[in-house]
TrEMBL record:
This is NERD domain-containing protein. It comes from the Bacteria. It holds the Pfam family NERD. InterPro entries: NERD. Residues 41-157 form the NERD domain. PROSITE patterns: NERD. It comes from Metabacillus rhizolycopersici.
Length: 321
């Protein structure tokens, strides 16, 4: 049973908006493009898990995706967590192609592809840390007796896994996604006792959802990009050019003459992702390249946004994300 569904990550939305709003010649553009590509690949790897999770008994397991909770000291993020009456299982999904060599001596993951070696953080250490933090949180909510297991799941079936024969931990901790249902069945057979009742399982799932705190970072601050570098105006959804100009209730592309009635919506979404979650009439006119205060007012009114303040000091709360 899916308790918390997988959503398109806000962080990726911010990276995509940042790509749209920077000049191709911007010194950070290629870095952001690369980071965005990696994040999207990771998300697709997590999505690939859904097919295999579909083989699980629906009422026996509670599945939560993208959970971020506070252990009393630090926040920690879980790609997927599976709850049952007998145990909790953390899944850390990696969608890395090529040949992966797990180096237990230096606690690193080495990817070999196209005769090139690249080092990644050790996912085994990552899930062990997540395991520790989740058990710490469970103690806070009086569920310290519930066993916690963890697996690293490789999303791509074409990825080759290698390690030394002595590294037995890898064989138990790292699997391809196709093996997931069988791995869960094996864990299930290791535990004979129910630690939770049906009611307690539901309550724990809901408590985890309630304690989830989404990560909402300032993407411009992270990449040290001034707000002045962000391209303003409405972007054409057909040719990706800007600016689109407002005329007689429509947006018209200056380059390809594409016409849209609601092109401002995606522009305001970019504003909320990159600049601020609130906006004023003046700031909206500046960002959308609108001269008329009344036109801006009409657009703001049509969005039916929550607002605070009055007249020139009125602030609108964007909810487009």
């Amino acid at each position: 049973m899916i308790i918390k569904p997988r959503m398109y990550p806000l962080y990726i939305k911010k990276l995509e908006a940042l790509q749209r709003r920077l000049l191709l010649e911007h010194p950070k553009f290629e870095l952001i493009k690369e980071d965005c590509g990696k994040r999207i690949a990771g998300y697709r790897g997590e999505q690939s898990l859904d097919y295999h999770l579909g083989f699980l008994a629906e009422h026996q397991y509670h599945i939560l995706h993208d959970v971020r909770i506070y252990d009393g000291t630090h926040f920690f993020q879980l790609d997927t967590v599976i709850l049952s009456k007998k145990f909790i299982l953390i899944l850390e999904v990696k969608n890395i192609t090529g040949t992966l060599y797990f180096d237990s001596d230096f606690n690193q993951l080495i990817r070999i592809q196209d005769e090139k070696k690249e080092s990644f953080p050790d996912p085994i250490l990552q899930v062990e840390r997540q395991n520790y933090q989740l058990r710490k949180w469970l103690r806070l909510i009086k569920h310290s007796n519930l066993p916690v297991q963890s697996l690293v799941v490789i999303g791509s079936p074409r990825t080759i896994l290698e390690t030394t024969p002595q590294n037995e931990k890898i064989y138990k901790k790292v699997i391809h996604s196709a093996k997931l249902p069988f791995a869960i069945l094996s864990i299930e057979q290791d535990y004979k006792k129910n630690y939770l009742s049906e009611k307690q399982l539901f309550q724990l799932s809901q408590q985890m959802v309630t304690n989830h705190t989404p990560l909402n970072i300032d993407i411009l601050a992270q990449y040290k990009i001034p707000k002045g570098d962000i391209l303003k105006a409405v972007i054409c959804s057909y040719c990706q050019s800007l600016p689109m100009k407002r005329s007689k209730g429509k947006w018209i592309c200056s380059k390809c003459s594409f016409i849209s009635k609601d092109a401002h919506l995606s522009a305001l979404e970019d504003y909320s992702l990159l600049i601020d979650s609130t906006i004023t009439n003046q700031k909206m006119r500046e960002f959308l390249n609108i001269q008329s205060t009344s036109v801006a007012n009409k657009l703001l009114f049509s969005l039916k946004l929550e607002s605070s303040g009055t007249k020139r000091g009125k602030i609108y709360h964007l909810n487009v994300t």
